[in-house]
Amino acid sequence: MATESVQDYLKAVYVLQSYGQEVTTSRIAARLGVAAPSVSAMVKKLVADGLARHAPYREVRLTEEGEAAALAVVRRHRLVESYLHDALGLRWDEIHDEAEILEHSVSERVVDAMDRALGHPSRDPHGDPIPPKRGRHREVPDEPLAGVPIGARVRVERVSDQDAAVLRHLARLRVVPGAEVTVADHDPFGGPLWVRVGSRRPALGAELVSAIFVSVLDR
Questions:
Q1: pLDDT for 6-28, tens place per residue?
Q2: How far is CA 111 from CA 15, 49, 80, 90, 99, in A?
Q3: Is-contact 130 122, C-beta < 8 A?
Q4: Reported pTM
Q5: d(Cα 64, Cα 72) in Å, to the nearest integer?
């Protein structure tokens, strides 16, 4: 069984990959809130243990063994989030930090019971796909909202769970997984993206836009 620290790093690498980001040591450090030298040391350990591949000035990639270990942690995390939200009624901006703790202590038996109680959900409350207990898993390649053209109608599929304040604000705007949104306008020179959600027309700054991933319904 990998240590908690190793599990955290494997999950961080996997999640960065799933969002289509280049997995650099600086991005891992930012996601985990640790210093760059600590990341470099852990990446060397992951490589030595056969869990990752990394060459100087290249991104970190998981080996087959590393991905399998990462998926086990990701499954626990996303099912715990789902149970805290759907069964216990915690808000979607509260569950990530709780799941970060519980994912290391909850047993597979309990995780399987949560899965059954929830009816085997395919995505967690943030829209992240939940890996199956057995068989292959492929992260859904949702499209970043930032790349959607003006006039397109989209469905929100997943929202990054890294910032609770972002989640609270998007909930107030009703920009949540399942919501249908139209891209109304995009101000130039780094200005906000304007969307229509029902009768509302909120402006989304760059930080909000970067957290949202969609499927395009109509271009």
A1: 999 999 999 998 887 889 999 99
A2: 20, 27, 7, 18, 12
A3: yes
A4: 0.89
A5: 13
